[in-house]
Amino acid sequence: MKRRLQTYFTSLPNDFAASIVVFLVALPLCLGIALGSNAPLFSGLIAGIVGGIVIGLLSGSQLSVSGPAAGLTAIVVAAIGKLPSFEAFLLAVVLCGLFQIILGFIRAGVLGDYVPNCVIKGMLAAIGLILILKQLPHMIGYDKNFAGDESFIQRDNDNTFSSIFSALNAITPGAAIIGIGALVMYILWEKFFAKAKFAKLLPGPLIVVLIAVGVSQLFAYAAPDLVLQEEHLVNIPMAGSASEFFSFFTSPDWSQLMNKQVWITGLTLALVASLETLLSIEAIDDLDPYQRVTPTNRELKAQGVGNLVSGLIGGLPITSVIVRSSANVNAGAKTKLATVYHGMLLLLCVAFIPAVLNLIPKAALAAVLIYTGYKLAKPSLFAAYYRKGWDQFLPFSITIAAILFTDLLTGVLIGIAIGLFFVIRSNFRTSVLVVNDHSRYLFRLRKDVSFLNKPIIKNKLEEVPDNASVLIDTSRADFIDKDIVEVIEDFMLHAQLKNIKVTVKRSKTRNQGFNETVFRKVDEDEDLVRTYEKNIEEVKA
After folding, report:
1. Which residues contact 445 (CB under 8 A, 6 or more apart)?
2. Among 220-229, 284-293, 478-487, which stretch is predicted with the lowest mean pLDDT?
3. Range of 523's domain?
4. Which phi and psi (to 5°) does residue 533 adopt?
5. Running DSSP on this structure, what letter comes out for residue 465?
6. Are residues 290 and 407 in the same domain?
7. Do β-strands 65-68 and 501-505 pair in parallel, antiparallel, or remain unpaired?
8. Are strands 432-437 and 501-505 parallel, antiparallel or unpaired?
9. Whole-structure pTM value
10. Per residue in 242-267, pLDDT tens?
11. Structural contact between residues 372 and 31, judged by C-beta atoms closer than 8 angstroms
């Protein structure tokens, strides 16, 4: 405990600076996702606050940040439309939390470990590209679509690519000046000042946003034609008094507890939110400079408690989210206190200075998100995976394409399927080695030999010419399918008709399922085995 407290204390400058960056990234996303979900704007902020403080304290992850997720908007929109009221939906969020706690106790978190690393990297790169493509319209003042949307087909009937062309035909000059200028400033800051000591307490995004606010206010005096309208500024609900502020918090409608649709919605949210969380955790652990491992079952329990609290006080469902988490990593966070600080900043700023936050241009925040996206999808990442070979590059690139043209979960499932295909293909190609030197043949079975290998083994055995000698080495196989055993036994029974001498080397420690009666007349020729093994590299060459 003492060492942990010391770590938190020494990491305070890094964590606090990172929390400011995450706060600036989370603010438009919380509002945008609430807007896109047809929910009260404040419900998105509640989810962001709970995700930062409650889940931040309970989670075992040091760098993950939780909040409302774009991947749940379609489910939330459909649920709010079907259920009698928003309060009934909040009850579904509470049930979602309970289901996630149960998933944590039954150790469902292990599912995240089965996602190939190339798919995780593809997911990160895809999120980066989505950030760039989706935020480009916002950076030049085209705010038809809500911030944080990750789906290919948008609510305004545009898609990810057509929205950019629509934006180019409807540029808002003031927003474009601020947005492009903010992006240039952020790039210059990262290039020349990011490593300076003062940058630990004055992160680049904060400087960029403050300058953007100043420029926006300057327009009112120097260039009235460039003044930004309200739709191009952050729009946080403001309360005139403490009682009005607390009225933004809403309780679930417990009278809907027997509504079957509420339970179905809660279970659906729990399953999708848990999958997104596990994927995000795997991705952020991969980005962690210290490669710390998050206990996934504990994470599911923490997410469950977070959703339980969020639903009880009027918030949207929560997951661990890649955009905010990657911003946290890139900003130099060291411990999970950065996540907690960002939640506290959201709460304090929304409660006490909403009018100040409402001066922030969306274009400036879009510039911050675009640069965050660039860090996730650097060209060097694509080059590195290309050098690794097609078995890594294809799952990586197909995952990216699938996420870009569908959504996060669908794209990842497609990526996992492609990755699994290459794993099976690799095992298929390496589990059976067939070489020959004139009339001597070696069949070596390695690792796991499944029924998928049956055709090649059967055909190769039948190609062995008359009067040849065959060594079948099964000693290195961990598993041999019964179909393969049958093929080998059948060959041994009719090999004598072609005057083929068969020698079999079997494992002395594992029962591989062969019929002993078949081997009564087959003796292992140790000299032949040693000869084959001595010359195997020459034969392969």
Report:
1. 431, 432, 472, 473, 474, 476, 477, 480, 484
2. 478-487
3. 431-540
4. -70, -30
5. P
6. no
7. unpaired
8. unpaired
9. 0.84
10. 888 999 999 999 999 999 999 999 99
11. no
